[in-house]
Amino acid sequence: MDAVRLLKVSQHALAQARAVLDIVAEAWQAQALAQAIGGHLAATGPPELRSEARGLSEAGGRGCAVLDHSGMRRDGIRAAQLSEVTDPASALTALGALLGDVSMALVSVACATDEEGLYWQCIEAIDAADESGDRVRGILRRLALRDRERSAAELRDSTTGPP
Q1: Can you give the pTM of this predicted structure?
Q2: Less Cβ around it within 10 Å: N or C end of the chain?
Q3: What is the pLDDT of residues 120-141, one digit of tens each?
C-alpha cells in the first residue's frame, strides 16, 4: 500500500481514538510508519536523501521502543503494509502532520493521567515524535533544495541552448 494512503488511515485512526491505550497505540503506529517510510526512502529513494532517510528510520524505531508494550499491536502493524512511496514530498508532509497530531494527543494523555509511568512514557514518546518530525522536515528541506537546483539547471539549459 502506498505511504500516503497508509498515513491517511493512521490520521483517521488517531482522530477516532478516544481511550488512552488507543491513543498510545496510534502513536506507536505513527512511529512505525516513520521507521518504515524512512527505511523505504533510505533503500530506494534519491541518493542525496538516503542518509537523512536512515536517520528518520532510526528515530521512528526509537519512538516505537519508547511505546512498545503488549496489547499495542492488537490490530496489526499498519506499517507492514507499506509497499511504495510514490510521492515522497506528499508522504513526508502527511507524516509530519501525523507526528504533530500524535504529539498533541500524547500531551492530552500526559496531562490527564495520574499514573506516573504512563505520564513519563508519553513525555518520552512526545520527544520521539518531535525528533521524527525534525527528521521529516530536514528531508523535506533537502527535497525542496534539490527541486530548486533542478529548476535552475533546466532554466539555465533552456536559455543557453543551441542557437
Answers
A1: 0.90
A2: C
A3: 999 999 999 999 999 999 999 9
